[in-house]
Write a structure and sequence with these properties.
Length: about 190
């Protein structure tokens, strides 16, 4: 995420009644004195996000752009709580409804990493159809609790018995991420 001046924001944001994310939740204390004309923006342009939403058959709204931008910028998967903190003071139910819509239109993957908390990541497919090329493994760190996408590890299509149809496949590897493995050698 980046800081953007209000003059660079897409009209969806400027005409919206959505409050912009709080700097207290996102940025360290040194950023709290940034003028109020600066807001949190995605590193992906609003136009790219809008095109992505349209390609998946989803109408663009300010909240949908914020959620998709946040997920697209993340270097790890995010839980509903992570998104709630990042998009404070956005309503939790609005974020959840947005995630549900995105999941139905293949804009996000919901990942069960074994912790009991569903985590989300932006899909890389360019349309509203389930894209098997976007299937990949995930890695859950037992120390820091983060779940990472391992996009270089493709998941093979499972060979199922006749009349079984796979709708999703969840492949999660658990262990220690590189940072935690350095800090806490086994």
């Amino acid at each position: 995420m980046l800081l953007c001046h209000a003059s660079n924001l897409h009209p969806f944001f400027l005409s919206s009644k959505i409050f912009f994310p709080s700097r207290k939740k996102i940025f360290p204390s040194s950023y709290r004195n940034i003028p109020s004309s600066y807001y949190l923006c995605s590193m992906i342009s609003d136009e790219q996000l809008i095109l992505r939403l349209k390609a998946h058959g989803v109408r663009a709204t300010a909240m949908r752009l914020l959620v998709l931008g946040t997920l697209s910028d993340a270097h790890t998967t995010l839980s509903l709580r992570d998104l709630e903190d990042a998009l404070y003071p956005a309503d939790k139910s609005t974020i959840f409804r947005t995630l549900s819509l995105f999941e139905a239109h293949h804009l996000v993957h919901a990942i069960d990493d074994g912790t009991g908390t569903t985590r989300y990541e932006a899909c890389m497919s360019d349309d509203d159809h389930h894209d098997s090329d976007d299937r990949h493994a995930h890695f859950h760190c037992l120390h820091c609790g983060k779940t990472f996408c391992l996009t270089d590890i493709a998941m093979p299509e499972p060979a199922l018995p006749d009349k079984y149809v796979a709708l999703s496949v969840n492949y999660v590897i658990t262990g220690y991420c590189p940072d935690c493995a350095k800090k806490h050698p086994i």
